[in-house]
Each structure stands twice: as C-alpha cells, then as structure tokens.
Design goal:
The chain has 495 residues and is α+β, with helices and mostly antiparallel strands. The chain is 46% helix and 21% strand. The longest helix has 58 residues.
Length: 495
Amino acid sequence: MDLARYEVLDTPREAAFDRITRLATHLLRTPVAVINFIDRDRQWGKSAVGLEDTTAPRHDSFCAWSILQDTPLIIENTATDPRFRNNPMVTGAPHVHMYAGAPLITPAGHRIGTLCVTDSQPHPLSAADIQALQDLAALVVSELELRARNRHLGLELDAQARLNADLRRSLEHARVLEGIGQLLDLDLSPEEMTLAASALLGEALQADYTGLVIFQGETLQVQAAHHHPRVPAPVRETLAQLPGWSSSVTRTLRQATAPLYLDNYPAAQGAQAEAVAAGVQQVAWLPLGTRGETTSLLITLRLRDNPVPHWRGSDRALLDAAGRSVRAALDRRMLLEASRQEARRDALTGVLGRRAFEEDLAAWEERGQPFLLAMVDLDGLKAVNDREGHAQGDRVLRVFAGTLKAEVGEAGNVYRVGGDEFVLLLATSDEEFLLEAVDVAMVAAQQVAGLQGASVGTAQSGEARGEELTALADARMYEVKRRRQARRAEVSIPG
C-alpha cells in the first residue's frame, strides 16, 4: 500500500511538514492544523500546530471519515452531526466544534490521510479557504513523494558506496589472489609456498598474526608467516606456541575439511587461557588438506584492539578462495611430482629409467661426493625371448630388477636403460658389494628362466664425468662380456 511505501509512520517531526501546518493555521485562521495518516487501527500525526499528540483509535478519528471521499470533509458543528456528537474529541478535550479535512491523495489515487484544521468555536470557511486547504494537502503529498524519492536516492547512493567499497576490497583481494597464483608458479616447496601466500593474506585481512600449522604424525609445529608490527614480541612468542597445547582448538581441527571462523575466541570451548591473556579475539582456521603423512592448516588471528571487529563476508570469501587456490596448487604439485616420478620409472620393471639416470648422475656429480657407477648387461636374455617368448623374458627382467633393487637398498639406485641393460649408482666404492648384489639378483632370475649370467663394468666417480664416466663403465662391461663369451666358446670346442 502507498502509506507503507512512504515509510512515514512513527518517524520524527520534519521541518517540511511543520511548515505546511503552520501555513494552514495562518491561511485558514485556525488554532489547530494537523497532518494525520490513517493506519489499519489508528490515526497518527506527523505534524501538528496547537496540539501535542493527535494519535487516536481509528474509530474515534474524524480523518478516517475524510479519506472516504475525494473532496474535503467540512463539519461546521460537530455536536449536531450524528457521526461525531458522542466522539470524545467533541465531548471532552480537545473540544472540536469545527472540523475541515482534505484527503491526502497519492499519485496512485489512494487516500492515506488528511491535512485538517479544527477550532473549538464556530469558524465558517469560505470557498477560498477550502481551496487553500486542498492546495496545502496536495503540497503534503508532493513533499511525501519528494521525501520518498530522496530516501530511495539515498539508499541507492549508500548501496553504491557499499558497492564501491566492496569493489575496492574485491580488487585488493583479487590482487592478493593474483599474487598467490604467481607464488604457486615459483619453484618453492609446499611449506615455502604456503608461508608466502599466508603473508599476503595477513596483510589483506588486517590480521595480527598468520601462521602455517603442520601435523606430522602426532607432532605439531607452527611456522609464522606474518605478524603486524603493533603486536609486542612477548605476545608473538605466546601466539607461536598456541597450536602446541594439547587441548587447544587447533588440535581438534586435524581432520577438518571446512574453514572455522570464531569472532569471540575467549568464549569458545577449548580456548587457551594464555591465548586469551595475550589478547586473541578472532581466529580463523583454513584446512589445506593432507598429503602423505602431512596435514596443514592456515591459522589467522586478530587481537582485541584490531580495527576490524569480526570476520567479514569478504574476509571469508578471500580465505575460502585462497584456500582453494593453495589446496589446488598443492594437489597439482603432488600430481606433477607423482607424474615426474612416474616418468622417471621404467614401466616394465618398476626401477628407475634412463631419464632418471641422466638426472641423477648430474645431481650426484654436483654433490661432489665419491660414488660408483656400474653397467650391467644380462647374458642370454635374447635366447629366453626366442625360446620361451617375450612374456617370459619380461618376467625375468622384473625378477632381476626387483631383487637387485632390494639388495642395493639405501646404498644407491638401480636404473634400466635398455632392453637388458641396467645401471647402478652406488654411494660406495666397494665393488664386492656390487658384485654380490648382482649375483643374488641373477640367482633369482635364473629360477624363472635359464640366463647365462650378467656382465658388469664399473667406474669410480673420480675417473671421469658425465657421458665419459658412463662410456668408461660401458666399455669395461663389454670387455667383461667379450671375455665371458670367449670362455664359453673355448668350453664348447671339443678337446
């Protein structure tokens, strides 16, 4: 309804309407002028001259009769009108002898109240007086329309101001997310990447402290990424110890999958007295997921004197978006690492492949510590493939490679670099250890099919570098192979 649209009921007095009632008393020479609005159950006055309060039940309202017609309601003597002679405003105070009310008609044609004048004694009105009353009633409606438009414009301006503030904050948050995205492209460890991202978040959120919480087994540690300069050093030290307390809220969130925001940390179950004493007021925990044996959380704190009184919707949106970005980046990094490791492996045997050997050889040489490089070639695999089929030959390779890897253990790596060729990098110069491991692997492989043996050539890291070192071990391996073949040929010649 129109009256509700104006939102005028029960509002304070306003100068624009008071001017109209004062003008009405002046033009019509009456002691009382009132702007009344008619609600469902009552009459309520927005402005009055000559009366303090015009609120009355609707059934006692003169104005409730006025809004039943489009033209002014004029009652020269209320005591003789059967509708009003028993009205308390006629029989008591204020004594109304003459009443004249012009309906307030909105542009939509609804009558929502009146501009009325009264007198406690006879007061005849001329046609000019009645016209003036109607004109002033029309001014009331015009003022209502102007007031509604101004209020609507004010709301739009407020909304635009809030939108502009939100846009500025969104732009700032977008820059933070862009910065996080750029961090994720750098060659950083997951911990380094997360700490750098949390530092950016701490600035954008006006946080007092932001840290990375890491669970590894039953061990929990926190790494601070950001603290505001206003935070005293003793408080920073206290905050850094928060996650370590066995009954802290943080420890209960190890398996959490959704963020948790507390605006009143001191009232939370599990709140630590030391944290409350340090001034912690708001806390946000952002789960970053579990990868392998490591679970990580981002924790952000605001102290009691922080200018931001609570976690705003934009704060939560930024943290949620940042959490998704960091989690996705960590998952992507894990997948990439898994893919990289998979690409380093030989698909048939499960040991490392040629690509891994080339990468690792360079890395081992870069470390500068002595190592042994060995080339191993299986003798007789082609005969197995020709005699028993390639599937059987593949089983031989898998058994030999798996056993050799188990025998070498932590002492080095095993690589398959060709059909029946293997390379080993060993953090030892003990060739006997190597030959024993090869012998054990060969015995296991011969349980599958009849191999003739394995030819082994070695080179110490100090003899050459890179491809030259590999070529040296390869040449020695082929020399061993030639001698083995020559001995077998001698044995096969009849004496």
